[in-house]
Design brief:
Elements lengths: L19 E8 L5 H11 L5 H13 L15 H6 L6 E6 L4 E6 L7 H8 L4 E7 L6 H12 L4 E7 L8 H17 L5 E5 L23 H7 L13 E2 L2 E3 L11 E5 L4 E3 L3 E5 L3 E10 L2 E3 L1 E3 L3 E6 L10 E4 L7 E10 L10 E6 L2 E14 L6 E3 L9 E12 L12 E5 L6 E7 L27
Helix pairs in contact: 4-5
Length: 456
């Protein structure tokens, strides 16, 4: 078959050298994620001499002739001893064309929650597959997480091609299977690349062993994938983090609302609404780094000054009056459960959305996603660690939550254990997957009240 169909998106010749790409690696255990990251760092000349010496020394002490590049990212002692990744390893590197922040995430199923952490802010996910094993359950789980988190770009790196004699048919079969599965989840773009991270084939430099492949190397794809978005395309959302009132002789009446713009842009003179109260005003001023500006955009940190003195505090959200969002106490979402303690109907939790934390009750768990065939298992009764499912929540206060499909920042939330503050669940409001993944149960609004002080 024609493998050029998997070569991915066209290069962007106008790419700015100062652009930043956040990306995450994922895949099943021992598929070579850390080795790929180490190869990227090594071959792009992003490793300091003392770091390379330390890796070479550690490799020799383990009886390895060649340096084990996975040691560049596997920093925990348990990781080095077992040869696996446990925690998310963040690394920064740059080329003349782009700057990168990468998250090397674990492959073991019990650490899928770490992949959620690494991919939550990623603009691209690199999913590795061992060419000898093909697409396995953990590959499908990571594809589902990437789709759930609305990662805009997904690259499939079919690794260890040297162990299958660089067979084109092996690569094409895996690429076709993964592409079909990911597309059914609604992943908008998939680029498949045959590589050998250990040898270096198609990682930074093109492989001499796979002349049948005409697409980009991994680094070429990372350097050229489009990541810049026009903030004016998104409705403005400004969660208030802090109220600034100096009350000094120089600023006796100064009242500013500080925070980070979650999406869109704000302008001086723009009519705005404060949620959840619904009060309205006009932006009178914008301060960025101590300087007054006329326009500010995501993800800048700003101070907003309004024409009216309103009762605004941390957790409120300032939005344009012509692009507001309805605040509600009822929330239906797709979630990935992260904690060892199962999530069950009736559970009392804290829900953190942007800068606001409120009490909430898990009213219902309508379904759990079955990864093999993407079917919905109705009424599972609970979600255990790494499960993906639907939940219906009732909060103590109305929250202005966007659909996650519209905004990754203001459509996301986490559930927290009120007893010890541990994170239980990562949530994405609305229908996170594409229409191809059918819902088998819909939430019923306005279920009855609960007891024990959690009556919402």
């Amino acid at each position: 078959m024609d493998t050029s169909a998997f070569s991915g998106a066209d290069s962007d010749s106008a790419l700015a050298a100062t652009s930043l790409l956040r990306f995450a690696t994922a895949g099943s255990v021992d598929d070579g994620k850390s080795t790929l990251v180490g190869r990227l760092l090594h071959d792009s000349k992003s490793v300091l001499a003392d770091q390379l010496e330390a890796v070479e020394s550690a490799s020799r002490s383990r009886g390895q002739e060649a340096p084990d590049l996975a040691l560049l990212t596997d920093g925990l002692r348990a990781e080095r001893e077992q040869g696996i990744t446990i925690d998310v390893a963040y690394r920064y590197f740059a080329t003349p064309r782009r700057r990168f922040i990468l998250a090397d995430t674990p492959g073991h199923v019990q650490y899928t929650r770490n992949m959620v952490t690494g991919a939550s802010t990623a603009e691209l996910a690199v999913v590795l597959v061992d060419a000898r094993n093909g697409v396995v359950e953990q590959t499908r789980r990571h594809a589902a997480v990437a789709a759930l988190l609305r990662v805009p770009h997904v690259a499939l790196a079919v690794n260890k091609m040297d162990l299958v004699d660089y067979d084109e048919d092996v690569f094409a079969g895996i690429a076709e299977e993964f592409t079909r599965y990911a597309a059914s989840l609604g992943v908008p773009e998939i680029t498949a690349i045959p590589i050998s991270a250990l040898v270096g084939d198609n990682v930074v430099t093109a492989s001499a062993h796979m002349d049948w492949y005409g697409g980009p190397t991994v680094l070429e794809h990372l350097e050229t994938v489009p990541v810049t978005d026009d903030p004016s395309d998104d409705p403005a959302r400004f969660p208030v983090q802090y109220v600034i009132r100096p009350q000094t002789p120089e600023h006796p009446d100064y009242r500013g609302y500080a925070g980070q713009i979650a999406s869109g842009l704000l302008r001086v003179g723009q009519p705005v609404t404060v949620l959840p109260s619904g009060r309205t005003s006009v932006i009178e001023g914008l301060d960025v780094l101590g300087q007054s500006v006329d326009v500010a955009w995501a993800p800048q940190s700003v101070t907003v000054l309004l024409a009216d003195d309103l009762d605004i505090s941390r957790g409120d959200m300032i939005v344009p009056s012509d692009a507001t969002v309805t605040a509600s106490q009822d929330l239906t979402a797709t979630v990935c459960h992260l904690h060892d303690t199962p999530l069950t109907p009736g559970a009392r939790v804290l829900l953190k959305h942007t800068t606001r934390t409120v009490k909430a009750i898990v009213k219902e768990i309508p379904s759990r996603l079955t990864l093999d065939d993407l079917s919905q298992h109705p009424e599972p009764g609970r979600l255990v660690a790494n499960d993906i499912g639907r939940v219906v929540l009732r909060t103590s206060e109305a929250l202005p939550v966007d659909a996650y499909a519209d905004s990754r920042r203001t459509g996301s939330f986490v559930l927290i254990d009120p007893a010890d503050g541990s994170t239980l669940t990562a949530g994405m409001a609305g229908h996170a997957f594409a229409d191809a993944v059918r819902e088998t149960a819909e939430a019923e609004a306005g279920r009855g009240a609960d007891d024990d002080g959690w009556d919402f």
